[in-house]
Amino acid sequence: MSDELKLTILSPERKLLEECPVQEVLLPTSEGQIQILPGHAAIVGTIETGVFGYRDAAGHVSTGVVTTGFFEVSGERVTVTAETLELKGEIDVERAKRAQKAAEEALRSADLDSAKFRKYQLKLQRSLIRQQIAGREHHE
Known about the structure:
Distance between the termini: 26 Å
CATH superfamily of the largest domain: F0F1 ATP synthase delta/epsilon subunit, N-terminal
CATH topology of the largest domain: ATP Synthase, domain 1
Structural class: alpha+beta
Largest sheet: 9 strands, mixed
Order of helices and strands: EEEEEEEEEHH
Radius of gyration: 16 Å
Helix content: 25-40%
Number of domains: 2
Number of helices: 2
């Protein structure tokens, strides 16, 4: 059994990592936050909007925000395919604050149907997570 994983992270806009050696991966899944370590059982699952992270082979931790998608663990390979992803340093905090304000205003509207209400709930959630990650100090 290998003592590292090979992480690939993809979105429609870019390939963030391809077969990058890592020690661990953290993902927000439909079952809650999971930690994937070398030797993890094979699994396929869905990703929810939230915080993701990984520790590279040198021990450096990278974090960011990921939106819905899928992940697969097979042997030593972990593949993440997400709708969008942003690393902590890429997050535009002012844009996230504007998105938060717009979503909050839309949610106060009395004429939203359930689909639109859910859409703005998700927009609000993403903007808050982005601000949380962007403001988090690096303590690892």
